[in-house]
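Support reply, case 0932

Customer input (verbatim):
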Amino acid sequence: MTTSPGTAGPDASVPGGVAVDAAEVAIRADVEAHGGELYHVVRRALGDDQLAEEVVQDVFVRAWRADDRWDPERGSRRTWLFAIARNAIVDAVRRRDGRPRVVGEPDEVDLVTPDRAQQIADRLAIQAAVRKLGAPHRTALIEVHLRGRPYDEVAADLDIPVGTVRSRVFHGLRKLRDELVEQGWSHA
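Our regenerated output:
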């Protein structure tokens, strides 16, 4: 079997022996590897199953169209897909909010605004980055920064020296920053 330029070899063929574009092969692998996680994040951001399915599909279509623009030096495929998802979430909210209300739709429906959608997408990205931290760093960061507890109190609860808590917070913040930069965030 011969392939034309821009197509993958025989290993990338679909049933029936039809050669598939290399970008399509990459996107199929992305769907397999990241589709479920993307759907979960988008669903949490939008609160709508059907819209989440549409947005995830849109993410993969955008990725397929822009496959030649992915730069492995700038981040992983996962990171690139999540950056596309953040934009797709905001776009979906803008489209949804631009439509007329359905007759009989309650006024108190909590619609997500574009700014709110961006906040939700950002928060979900931060939560995902925090989950990637090791348990000691994650615990120290949560106790000190999210719960606002003093270092000495956290150290006493964890039965470790205060200096260890400070070190875990410092290194945890650095790892968190690195993970967010990998996801496409810029830091000052």
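We compared this against your earlier run and they match. Two observations from our side: The radius of gyration is 21 Å. The helical segments are 22-46, 49-65, 77-98, 114-131, 135-146, 151-158, 162-182. Please reopen the case if you see a mismatch on your end.
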